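Pilot study result, target chain (193 residues):
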Amino acid sequence: MREDLPKLPCRLHLAVTGSVGGTTLALQYARQSIVEGGRVIWASEKIPDPLRFSQIFADVDIVSSSRFHAIELGTNLEQGIKQVIDASDFLPSVILVVIDDWAPKQGKTPSSTIALAEKVLAVADREMSVILTSKTYGNPAAGADSKVRGGERLENAGCETWHLTREESKPEIRQINSAEESFSLRLGDEGYY
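Predicted structure:
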């Protein structure tokens, strides 16, 4: 498993083209945060796939793994975001908040949903990072040219956007493109390496 992932910014929007491993990358950052002694709050419509979770967290002891707090949002995003913010205020040593698939996968993202994402981003500071993941839309072959959900509003909230795509000629290779640099990662059963 790769330990030297790109440095996580304080506020990150991971814009994922198709199903190329966005949740896996966020889980790897969560694992890294827990191994470093921190606590993670993870929120998504459904909890992460148990098999993928066990692959990523295989070498993390049970006591450390207990610092991973999952909140299943279901369809009530507003209530779920309130729970995430409350938990980040209440629980000690929270260093990472992840909202996985924060936006609808299809159609236009409602302004009210973007406003909820902005509320979560507002809790990020030097000690705590926030990762939002969502699917891009537009032409899947366009990669970084695909459109990003909530793009400009999230950037105005101080969020850095990374595009995660699959390399066409090597399907096991993923490309992360940020405004400043690009990274190539190989995806396997145990995550990125």
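One observation from the pilot: The helical segments are 22-35, 50-56, 62-65, 77-90, 111-121, 151-156. A full batch analysis is planned for the follow-on phase.
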